[in-house]
């Protein structure tokens, strides 16, 4: 099975450069949130930019230096979700940003709900199919880009940030629906295969 097959990585291979960069992104998250809470948007912007760069860097290193591991496969999306969800929640709750830049509640609700549905769906597919592989889709990548741009637009005090977060919200819904359709297809394949065997 997919998950079991990846647990054979040696400890020294799992803690390679790519994974260390991913872990550093997770460590940056509470510092980033602290900067926002204490109204240091300049520091928050620098930290968030570093996090974005590290997101691309760890993937590049993993591919070019053959450092793909089970740990990296799991940690990379987790690091992204921890950073983005923390940022969306924080920027919808803090009172130290101008009213027109404060995230409305529906944005983090949509973002969190979509991720929760994907995780729950993955668990269901795994238990029924015995295998789950979530490949980043076009809509997923596009959504992540606009979610990141939403955070940046608020940190740089872009006066029309609401346009960016509304686009991100719509794309989040579309990408969530796309993953749900793919999950349904995966379950349908299992049903068809079971009928064929019998």
Percentage beta strand: under 5%
* pLDDT averaged over residues: 84
Low-confidence stretches: 1-8
Helix content: over 70%
Count of helices? 8
Secondary-structure element series:
HHHHHHHH
How would a crystallographer describe the biggest sheet? none
The separation of the N and C termini measures 23 Å
What count of structural domains? 2
What characteristic shape results from the CA principal axes? Answer: globular
Which oligomeric state applies? single chain
Number of strands: 0
Q: Which structural class is indicated by helix and strand composition? A: mainly alpha
The radius of gyration is 19 Å
In short:
This protein has 198 residues and is mainly α. It is built from 8 helices and no strands.
Keywords:
8 helices; mainly alpha; globular; 198 residues
Characterize the structure shown.
- With 198 residues, this protein is mostly helical.
- It has 2 domains: 10-95, no CATH class; 97-198.
- The protein is built from 8 helices and no strands.
- Helix 3 (17-37) runs parallel beside helix 5.
- The longest helix has 37 residues, at 161-197.
- The radius of gyration is 19 Å and the shape is globular.
Produce the secondary structure layout.
Layout lengths: L1 H5 L4 H4 L2 H21 L3 H24 L5 H24 L12 H24 L8 H18 L5 H37 L1
